[in-house]
Amino acid sequence: MRILIALGGNALLRRGEPMTATNQIANIRRAATQIARLAHGNQLIVAHGNGPQVGLLALQAAAVGARSAMPLDVLDAESEGMIGYLLEQELANALPNDREVATLLTRVEVQADDPAFDHPTKPIGPVYAKEDAERLAVRHRWSIAADGAGYRRVVASPKPHRVVELRAIQWLLDRDAIVIAAGGGGIPVTVAADGKAHSGVEAVIDKDLCSALLAADLGADLLLIATDVDAVYENWHTSRESALREITVTALRAMFFPAGTMGPKVEAAAEFVSRTGQPAVIGSLDQIEQMANGTAGTRVTRGA
Questions:
Q1: Catalytic residue positions?
Q2: Long-range interactions of 246-252: CB distance < 8 A, separation 24+
Q3: Is the N or C terminus of the chain more exposed, i.e. has fewer CB atoms within 10 Å?
Q4: What is the pLDDT of residues 104-130, one digit of tens each?
Q5: In total, how many domains does the chain have?
């Protein structure tokens, strides 16, 4: 079976945790242990988020001055390499020596006129108190938005259209490598009128939407979205909340989920299932194996 596993940025660095290398490695090790249990007899592609990490890199870049700061597409690539290396190392440690793991920097085409560039929604970096977020927004010319009880910087998140390195990923899968790709939603690029030359753009693509696109284009049998909650919940954080265990695309799309949290995951799962007819599952990082065998998470199907 071919499975694409999408690891959320908040699963690799849990909400409220200090943004330290020790914490990230511990969470990545937990994920790698789970993923390794699916490796036998399956082809695996692993994607991951980068919201907390790329936000921290952007803060560090801003600290050296605007003239020296790297643009977001370069920071996307930097975070993709950093998290990919940690995942690759922990996965290799958890797997037999004869199973190869490869991390691939992945460019993803977006449209230059995507309306997302005028309406930033993707949260990156740390969570701040409102007063601190407003002060930083003025200083760095950020857009900010509420995220839970706090506030975070938000950036443009254009829709992914094509994974440039698709053939390279397929080549690696054909040779039984586990491929870590499209990290952080990939590196956003636009394509010139000749259809060949690419240019990086200031944005962070949503990891879940890119994962759905990549999974569909690779003919995956299952899209598995691992996050920091154990399922999709109806009426979340109310007295009427309840976990959804199995649901059709039509029923799921009739519900509302916030854009900054569960919304993109639900949209990605629905898009993949609608396009391919194959199932998607959303659930906890600690239950990846159970999600794959159908005993945990929220399973999304096309239905009758």
A1: 9-10, 122, 207, 265
A2: 246/298, 246/299, 246/300, 246/301, 247/298, 247/299, 247/300, 247/301, 248/300, 248/301, 248/302, 248/303, 249/273, 249/274, 249/300, 249/301, 249/302, 249/303, 250/303, 251/303, 252/300
A3: C
A4: 999 999 999 999 999 998 888 778 899
A5: 1
